[in-house]
């Protein structure tokens, strides 16, 4: 049996759920979200930049977000481009502070809001096939207990993350600009105090990141070349701990506290984008459209902006709203280009170790005009 729906969103992360909520706010379209995970995944060190509350307010979530216990971040401290710490703060930013996220809580709130506005959120549901039937797209889903259904959506939103499951099956090609790895430790803060600021420090191997998280936890990560991961983890992470002890900012901050740490773990960090983010009856949002380097701190905020633009684009295409004064693909391209320029400027500012492999590989490259 084939069921019709107006919009199928593949992926239930922030980009997909925000798109679904935005569509229901603008239209009466039927929206289905297919999410493979049954519960949100724990993520570490994710931050919402100043101004993100405006995006959440458009989704009807700003007040709930403030009440959910996410940790306000007053700014950052960094050792980058030289030996002296530099500071940035959000205290006078009219858009408000940044926020260290409890990612599980954040995504749970988005799921609840989506269901509240009438989105059919199907967790534990994997997208397994796509095809054409009588000139219409069909998508096969496998739900809990192996139950299979087929949907015939008018629109498909690919929010499946860096794999871009649907877009690649429509011929879109993913271009990767960089591949990194974050070797990280999550720890409970047992005694002492740790700054609410985000701490970033460049070293010859890569760059360190440390921040306090909701629930008195601290994440510490070294972002390095993927080839360095095995060496950093060898012997119980001996080299990782040695390099942390040698830092001039993060090491002393952590020396003031007592932690109960978990084992080191690795997370891939990819900078990439699709060669096209729209097609006939589909578009891609969030990481499915383009993945960011976390050094810029704009990943989730940009995903929420993608979602808002996607909802407006689909509403207009289905006759449920006025035509936006821009093209969706241009907006996504502009955000990624802004990220690229910011990233290149940051890496170019750190030239203390030009012969080290990590930094030599990230000398900004010219980008051909299109």
- Tell me how many strands there are: 20
Shape: globular
Query: Which architecture of the largest domain does the CATH hierarchy give at level 2?
Result: 3-Layer(bba) Sandwich
Instruction: Summarize the helix and strand pattern as letters.
Output: EHEEHHEEEEHEEEEHEEEEHHEEEEEHHH
What is the H level of CATH, i.e. the homologous superfamily of the largest domain? FAD/NAD(P)-binding domain
Beta-strand content bin: 25-35%
CATH class of the largest domain: Alpha Beta
* CATH topology assignment of the largest domain: FAD/NAD(P)-binding domain
Low-confidence regions = none
**Rounded to an integer, what's the Rg over CA atoms?**
21 Å
The total of helices stands at 10
Q: Tell me the distance between the termini.
A: 45 Å
The biggest sheet, with number of strands, parallel, antiparallel or mixed sense and barrel status, is: 9 strands, mixed
Number of domains: 2
Helix content class = 25-40%
Quote the average pLDDT: 94
Name the structural class: alpha+beta
Protein name: Tryptophan 7-halogenase
Family: Belongs to the flavin-dependent halogenase family. Bacterial tryptophan halogenase subfamily.
InterPro entries: FAD-bd (IPR002938), FAD/NAD-bd_sf (IPR036188), Flavin-dep_Halogenase_NPB (IPR050816)
Pfam families: FAD_binding_3
């Amino acid at each position: 049996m084939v069921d019709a729906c107006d919009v199928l969103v593949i992926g239930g992360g922030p980009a997909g759920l925000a798109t679904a909520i935005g569509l229901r706010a603008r239209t009466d379209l039927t929206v289905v979200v297919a999410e493979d995970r049954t519960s949100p995944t724990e993520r570490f060190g994710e931050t919402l930049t100043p101004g993100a509350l405006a995006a959440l307010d458009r989704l009807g979530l700003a007040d709930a977000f403030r009440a959910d216990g996410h940790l306000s971040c007053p700014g950052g401290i960094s050792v980058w481009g030289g030996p002296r710490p530099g500071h940035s703060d959000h205290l006078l930013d009219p858009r408000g502070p940044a926020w260290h996220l409890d990612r599980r809580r954040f995504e749970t709130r988005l799921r609840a809001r989506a269901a509240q506005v009438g989105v059919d959120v199907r967790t534990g549901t994997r997208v397994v096939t796509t095809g054409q039937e009588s000139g219409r797209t069909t998508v096969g889903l496998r739900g809990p207990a192996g139950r299979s259904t087929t949907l015939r959506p008018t629109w498909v939103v690919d929010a499946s993350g860096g794999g871009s499951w649907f877009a690649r099956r429509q011929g879109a090609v993913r271009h990767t600009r960089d591949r990194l790895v974050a070797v990280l430790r999550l720890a409970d803060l047992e005694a002492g105090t740790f700054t609410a600021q985000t701490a970033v420090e460049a070293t010859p191997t890569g760059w360190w990141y440390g921040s306090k998280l909701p629930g008195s936890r601290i994440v510490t990560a070294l972002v390095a070349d993927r080839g360095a991961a095995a060496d950093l983890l060898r012997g119980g992470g001996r080299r990782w701990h040695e390099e942390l002890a040698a830092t001039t900012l993060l090491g002393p901050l952590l020396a003031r506290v007592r932690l109960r740490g978990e084992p080191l773990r690795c997370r891939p960090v990819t900078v990439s984008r699709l060669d096209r983010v729209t097609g006939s009856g589909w578009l891609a949002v969030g990481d499915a459209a383009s993945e960011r380097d976390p050094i810029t701190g704009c990943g989730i905020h940009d995903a929420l902006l993608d979602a808002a633009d996607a909802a407006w684009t689909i509403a207009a295409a289905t006759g449920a709203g006025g035509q936006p004064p821009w093209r969706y693909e241009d907006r996504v391209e502009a955000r990624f280009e802004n990220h690229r320029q910011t990233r290149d400027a940051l890496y170019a500012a750190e030239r203390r170790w030009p012969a080290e492999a990590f930094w030599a590989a990230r000398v900004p490259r010219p980008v051909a005009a299109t």
